[in-house]
From TrEMBL:
InterPro entries: Cytochrome_b-c1_su10_fun. Keywords: Membrane, Transmembrane, Transmembrane helix. The keyword Membrane applies. This is Cytochrome b-c1 complex subunit 10. One of its GO terms (cellular component) is mitochondrion. It comes from Candolleomyces aberdarensis. It comes from the Eukaryota. The chain crosses the membrane at residues 26-47.
Length: 73
């Protein structure tokens, strides 16, 4: 008959053991929420200028090509 030996786990091992099944779901929801935030805030000049124009793949799309004479401010 095999002996059953219990080993103590550190608090970090206990936390990682409980959190591991949720990491893929949390990452998916995080990416989806971040995408939704940037989609909804892409019309805001501050977000467009400070974040979206400085992103390497998106800078050409969000570049402001409006002449200065047509801008109200």
């Amino acid at each position: 008959m095999a002996r059953l030996a219990f080993q103590s786990r550190t608090p970090l091992q206990s936390f990682l053991g409980a959190a591991t099944p949720w990491t893929r779901s949390a990452a998916t929801w995080g990416v989806g929420a971040g995408t939704a935030v940037f989609l909804l805030l892409s019309v805001t000049p501050l977000v467009r200028r400070e974040v979206l124009q400085k992103t390497p793949g998106l800078s050409w799309y969000y570049e402001d090509k409006t002449p200065a004479s047509d801008k109200p401010f």
